[in-house]
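User: What would this chain look like folded?
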Amino acid sequence: MNKLILTTIALAMAAPVSAQTPAPAPARPAGAAAGDAAFGARMLGPATGEQIFHRVCAACHMHDAKGAEGAGRYPALAGNRNLAVPAYPAMVVVKGLNGMPAIGQMLTDEQVADVVTYVRSNFGNKFKGKITAAEVKALR
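Assistant: Here's the prediction, encoded as structure tokens.
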């Protein structure tokens, strides 16, 4: 076998376990189930739609909302005509779609409404009207 390959294997086997295995995610507090909107809201703290976008959505859709392609495809939200009807992006946030996870399960109805309204009125989007927390609740 090639000496370089054998050296690489030996180094990988000698590496401490912590370097090979990622640390587990922090445990949820007792009583906080997966998809617990109250837990997600506490983790974000009081946040505007803009803050939620930059703390959560921008990781995939980028801070300028122009999307990205690479290991996956993250559609642009900037200038996206699919955002014209407020219920559509709210439904995608709440229920997920294709590769988009249902992140609305970790947000309150108000937070979903705030971030959807923010995206629909920024990044070159000029869509009128807001979605309300009550409308988001009905989508769940």
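Strands lie at 68-69, 73-74. If you want, I can go into more detail on any region.
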